[in-house]
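Request: Could I get any protein with tokenized structure?
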Amino acid sequence: MLLAWALRRLIRSGHLTLIDARGRSHHFGAPGAQPAATMRLHDPALHRRLVFQSELALGEAWMDGTMTVEDGTLGDLLAVLSLNLDTAPPLPWEAIGDRLAPLLRRLQQYNPAATARRNVAHHYDLSDRLYDLFLDRDRQYSCAYFRRADDTLEAAQHNKMRHIAAKLAIEPGMRVLDIGSGWGSLALYLARECGADVTGLTLSREQHARAQARAGMAGASDRVRFALRDYREETGVYDRIVSVGMFEHVGVNHYPAFFDTLKRRLASGGVALLHAIGRMDGPGTTNAWLRKYIFPGGYAPALSEVLPVIEGAGLWVTDIEILRLHYAETLRHWHDRFQRHRAEIAALYDERFCRMWEFYLKGAEMDFRYLRTMVFQIQITRQIDALPLVRDYMLEWERAHP
């Protein structure tokens, strides 16, 4: 069987048992090795699809129930596969696809303003209740910052906002633009802790309504406001610009427009902070299943794709930090909370939706834990002397805001 041959080439670490649709068992890797899982196929068509359309087929089979996991969990199965994907030689037809992928990705990531709004609505305009059930109390939907292994999700998300604020070096009264402001947590934090006047931009109607309501309840509407506006439509000038978890939705075609906008909207002595998911192994493409079901138009870039565009815009890169396993831990917390509230989420949607999101959350965790995905934070200025010459100011700010 071609699938068995492909898995024998792939699995070198851990142990995988495959029970094919005819009931035959196949074993790969070392018996007794960890991680380990058993996957059972219930549809003979999967024998071929998992070989030639592996990215789409595995997730769809889990969603549809034509692939189930025995003697382990979905996380165990994805751990075995992810642990081996990084070192396995590509199959001949995969190598051809890898060469063609760069030709298609600009079309896949074509995100003019109207398309960007549709893509955002696909993911972020789901039931408002859904995000309450698996995010932290402050509803932050981006990588947390775990200073200690036993940090709660709430503590780690607070750490993240504090870490970003320290890098922005905000002084009271400064005007701040938050591009991709989500449900408003960071904007409200910067107003409260830094005394900033903040404008947040989002394309999600659900996020905009929630953020506006939160500003009102906090009595901060005079200092924090949110707009349903694309970053390319912004006209103001700001002392500080921050963008967290939004750059993944920009698309490589639009990087020059993004950084040109950032430069035009940033005051001459201003500072910007870009926080985004990236890849450490150079330019690539978005997983086909993730692109179809979760983040249409989305892409996590390599630094080698981002830095030349920043240079071309005439901007200074003044600091770069790579967050490695922080997102794996964030996703683990999200998945655990999702499972605790699974029955309620199934009542909001259905079983297939739950299985889709399980695959998304656990699959993304394995990407950050075993493959070549990370988060980068890039500090950017227009002027060489916009910030102190040593980084002590960041640590001093964090110590002053425990």
